[in-house]
Design goal:
A hairpin with a 3-residue loop joins strand 3 and strand 4. The chain has 217 residues and is an alpha/beta fold. It is 31% helix and 28% strand. Helix 2 runs parallel beside helix 3.
Length: 217
């Protein structure tokens, strides 16, 4: 079986890594397959490789979704990147009362999709995370019942424990979710959890909570 690499992937292996024919690379289809491949050609605009060994061929993973309040774009992207490395399968940019009011435009979503690909490659993960459209707290409440566990970050909550099933992780802005928002999420079935008693940036809280709730893969 052969694969063709073009555009950014070809540029990275040919111009950045300067790989040559017979060098070995890792490839994934983003849907569960991870394999090694040997480069057979490195041309000007594309490369070709032959699969040599399948390392993993996983079925659909459990849903591990991060709903993160809209914060400054660079900080949101940094949190998203690290959470992809930790194993989230989806991200929902969340509109909150105290968060940024701007909506996540197409360009921002495209940036997050590029970040997702880079992070999954970094961590040798073989499922490409989805970037969902923005949602508000009310819309998120309607989705809580779709998960075995839903956890919202709150400094007054107990320490989190690893969740083995489908899990929704909700992190508000640095000012925190409004009492009404917390109450609505709790009423929908979400439980509070705290990764620290100290005041954390939203992106730090997101990474800490995802790490605490992740299974050991």
């Amino acid at each position: 079986m052969r694969v063709e690499l073009a555009d950014e992937e070809h540029h990275h292996l040919a111009r950045v890594l300067r790989l040559r024919v017979a060098d070995e690379i890792h490839v994934t289809n983003g849907r569960g397959l991870l394999a090694t491949a040997r480069l057979e050609s490195v041309a000007r605009a594309r490369s070709e490789a032959a699969i040599t060994r399948v390392l993993a061929d996983e079925g659909a993973p459990r849903r591990f979704v991060l709903a993160l309040a809209l914060i400054r774009r660079d900080r949101f992207a940094r949190a998203f990147e690290q959470c992809v490395e930790l194993g989230i399968t989806e991200c929902v940019p969340l509109i909150t009362a105290a968060g940024r009011r701007g909506r996540a435009e197409r360009a921002f979503r495209e940036r997050l999709e590029r970040v997702a690909v880079a992070a999954m490659k970094q961590a040798f993960r073989c499922h490409r995370p989805l970037v969902q459209p923005v949602a508000d707290v009310q819309a998120l409440c309607a989705r809580v019942g779709d998960f075995e566990s839903a956890v919202v970050g709150d400094p007054e909550g107990p320490a989190p424990a690893a969740c083995p099933g489908d899990t929704l992780v909700i992190v508000g802005p640095e000012g925190g979710l409004e009492p009404g928002e917390l109450a609505a999420l709790e009423g929908a079935g979400a439980a509070r959890a705290a990764v620290s008693r100290h005041r954390l940036r939203a992106e730090t809280a997101a990474v800490g909570l995802v790490a605490a709730l992740a299974r050991a893969d």
